[in-house]
Amino acid sequence: MTATIDAPRSPYAQTKRGVNWEKWGWIYMRASGIMLVVLIFGHLFVNLMTGTGISQIDFGFVAGKLADPFWQIWDTLMLWLALIHGANGMRTLVNDYVSRPGTRRLLHGALAASTVVLLVLGTLVIYTFDPCPAGADPSLVASFCEGL
Q: Out of the domains of life, which is the source (predicted)?
């Protein structure tokens, strides 16, 4: 008795002319994974190991980090790489396990829409965060904002 393995169900596994998006997705996953390891461990080291450790993390600490252009770029890279990395992984799962084309298109659309919304909102938070908004009630803002 011999066992046979069925071909993958994904219609995207077929060879086509033009850009090989599956290959570039595979390469992106490897490159972004390496970059994310560096970014995430750097983030954890600065937040948990330097200074007074975890006890230093409060609103003022986060506000100070988000005021520094270096950390804005660092956090933006982490956000974009992680979200696109995760969305690409979910896209691969959808391709592997969803056999109906209509359902696959719907899931890919939902995945793309949610990724775009999260990227836009996350990027806006990183670059527009203001811990001391002008005209705010002094009782509602951080203690270091008093005097504005």
A: Bacteria
